[in-house]
């Protein structure tokens, strides 16, 4: 029994310790990034932020293409491009303004994924965005960990969609989008 408890302790403690060390190192790297200065110099976006904002991660190709905001009910959803070039909306969120999780001296727009129906791992994520230029937002991805510890994992950029309707998803360079259809 004693050996089983030791093994169980190791099985639990080592992964938690590993994730904690990685989270601390990643947060330190993000805080030393030049985008941190841009982030803290930004201002909280207008509460009426609405429609599609094209998203990007510096130097990374991802299927995530942006976020759509609905100011009337302080909600939104992420926009993805599937392998077959179809638009897919998933991972709804709620928005509100408040002090930054790590940058406690500034107000930010918080994007909270702790909504019933989202996957358990996503419910621990809170994005924060500030406006750095008209129609341009800089965001941070935070992960809420154990014992109230929060890690900063990445920066992202959002730019207001200027052409087409708010229903149109951003197209990757060199390809045409085929809108997803819904049965009706």
In short:
The chain is an alpha+beta fold and 184 residues long. 21% of the residues lie in helices and 37% in strands. The chain has helices at 2-32, 35-41; strands spanning 51-56, 64-70, 75-81, 87-99, 107-112, 125-133, 136-144, 150-160.
Number of strands: 8
Rg (C-alpha, Å): 19 Å
- In this structure, how is the largest beta sheet organized? 8 strands, antiparallel, barrel
Broad structural category: alpha+beta
CATH level-1 class: Mainly Beta
CATH-defined topology? Lipocalin
Gap from first CA to last CA = 59 Å
> What fraction strand?
35-45%
Q: Based on CA inertia axes, which overall geometry fits? A: globular
* Helix content class: 10-25%
- CATH homologous group name: GXWXG domain
Description:
It is built from 2 helices and 8 strands. 21% of the residues lie in helices and 37% in strands. The N and C termini lie far apart (59 Å). It has helices at residues 2-32, 35-41, and strands at residues 51-56, 64-70, 75-81, 87-99, 107-112, 125-133, 136-144, 150-160. A hairpin with a 4-residue loop joins strand 2 and strand 3 (75-81). It has an 8-stranded antiparallel barrel with strand order 1-2-3-4-5-6-7-8. It has 184 residues and is an alpha+beta fold. The chain is globular, with a radius of gyration of 19 Å. The protein has a single domain, classed as GXWXG domain (Lipocalin).
Topology:
Blueprint: H1 2-32, H2 35-41, E1 51-56, E2 64-70, E3 75-81, E4 87-99, E5 107-112, E6 125-133, E7 136-144, E8 150-160
Antiparallel strand pairs: 1-2, 1-8, 2-3, 3-4, 4-5, 5-6, 6-7, 7-8
């Amino acid at each position: 029994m004693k050996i089983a408890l030791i093994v169980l302790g190791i099985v639990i403690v080592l992964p938690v310790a590993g994730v904690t060390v990685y989270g601390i190192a990643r947060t330190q790297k993000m805080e030393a990034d030049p985008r941190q200065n841009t982030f803290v110099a930004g201002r909280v976006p207008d509460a009426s932020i609405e429609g599609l904002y094209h998203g990007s991660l510096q130097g990374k190709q991802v299927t995530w293409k942006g976020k759509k905001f609905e100011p009337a009910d302080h909600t939104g959803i992420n926009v993805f491009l599937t392998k077959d070039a179809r638009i897919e909306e998933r991972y709804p969120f709620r928005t509100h303004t408040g002090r930054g999780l790590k940058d406690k001296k500034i107000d930010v727009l918080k994007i909270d994924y702790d909504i019933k129906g989202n996957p358990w791992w996503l419910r621990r994520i809170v994005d924060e965005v500030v406006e750095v230029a008209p129609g341009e937002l800089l965001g941070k991805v935070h992960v809420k960990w154990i014992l109230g510890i929060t890690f900063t994992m990445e920066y992202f950029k959002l730019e207001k969609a200027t052409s087409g309707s708010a229903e149109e998803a951003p197209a990757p360079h060199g390809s045409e989008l085929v809108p997803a259809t819904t049965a009706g």
